[in-house]
Amino acid sequence: MNPMVFKVQGMRCAGCVTKIEKHLSTLPLVESVNVNFIENKVTLYLKNKSLTPWKIIEAIRKLGFEATLDENADQTNSQYQLRKNFYELIFSFLFMVILVAPMIMDWMGFNFMWPGWFQLILVLPVQFWIGRSFYKGAWFSLKNRMFTMDTLIVLGTTAAFGLSLYNLIVMMIHAQHITHLYFESSAVIITFVLLGKYIEQKSLKQSDDAVQSLIQLQPNKVEVKRHNELVTISLQELKINEEIYIKAGSHIPVDGTIIEGQSDIHEAMLTGENLPVLKKIGDKVMAGTLNGFGHLTVKVDAIQEGTRLFNIIKLVTEARQQKIPIQRLIDRLSAFFVPVIIFIALGTFLGWWAYNGNVDQALINAISVLIIACPCSLGLATPVIF
């Protein structure tokens, strides 16, 4: 049963994972679904091939995510997205710093406050342009009758923004001096969530680059002895027990045994050993290692999938795709965790309002519950910590 693997863009928390797994599991002919949040991949095992990839992609898009077959995933697009997210993070961070500057300066003994209209101008692009992905995610979640991290972020930041906008309008209409503006809270929340997402994407990119560098250690062309002369062929055409010629300074393409020559072999990329190892007739060499000063003739023992290099790449890839037990637990909990938090936040608002009659204080406390209890921290932190 061969799996179908898709690249999915737009997953931001464990709730997104649950939403995709739950929806795709209901599709006919789907045997099982595995969603890898860290790698942004969805793997499906089908009962037969009558369910086409395009139907699956369409099903994923209806949930609010972009999907492509992994084999067609564009590396350039991934780099562009990472760069775009970095620029948005910098933009959001600069506006956030300006908004929180009065609080920072107050610690230093300088007491001032930005005008309310100026704070509004600064927070608008952060809230509704940079934060647009949260609104999009929350909307699609609502359409599919599910709650995710985006739901909490949108509720919390929009409530803080709405309360501040209301207070600002009251201040301007009645010419009152109201200090209870929370525009900076909204900007801080969005900026730090974006920061966490960017760090995660950057780490994944570095991991992908490391795997790609391992893959590139294996040459595509080899010189093989056939009919007493050297012939250049592709690695795919090579067969076990054939003899290949390896020039000095080139990477070894297969696992094999030296039958002619000797050389220093650099194996740091596979073993971590920094110093080259002298190899002579009868010694084993591994694919991906670097031949030093000597020319070698090697009898092929293993090619491609049979090499140690391939097994290392396979183990690393499988380890990244597997979910640790605590991550699977978080995925299950997130399905009902968000509604519970929303209910607690509503109870907090009603309780504080009944206690002191201060709507502003009640709303701020409710917003605090929404933001602090956001499950994205668990969804992001557990894969990194463990």
Q: What is this structure's SSE topology?
A:
Layout: E1 3-9, H1 14-25, E2 30-36, E3 41-46, H2 53-62, E4 66-69, H3 75-107, H4 116-130, H5 132-143, H6 149-174, H7 183-215, E5 221-226, E6 229-234, E7 243-246, E8 255-260, E9 263-266, H8 268-271, E10 277-279, E11 284-285, E12 290-291, E13 296-302, H9 308-321, H10 325-356, H11 359-372, H12 376-385
Antiparallel strand pairs: 1-3, 1-4, 2-3, 5-6, 5-7, 7-13, 8-11, 8-13, 9-10, 9-12
Helix pairs in contact: 1-10, 3-4, 3-7, 4-6, 4-7, 5-6, 6-7, 6-11, 10-11, 10-12
Summarize the structure.
The protein is α+β, with helices and mostly antiparallel strands and 386 residues long. It contains twelve helices and 13 strands.
Tell me what the structure shows.
The structure is a single chain. Helix content is 56%, strand content 17%. It has 386 residues and is an alpha+beta fold. The chain has a six-stranded antiparallel sheet with strand order 6-5-7-13-8-11, with no helix packed on it. A four-stranded antiparallel sheet has the order 2-3-1-4, with helices on one face. Strand 5 and strand 6 form a beta hairpin. Helix 1 crosses helix 10, helix 4 runs antiparallel to helix 6 and helix 6 runs antiparallel to helix 11. The longest helix has 33 residues. The relative contact order is 0.12. The C terminus is likely disordered.
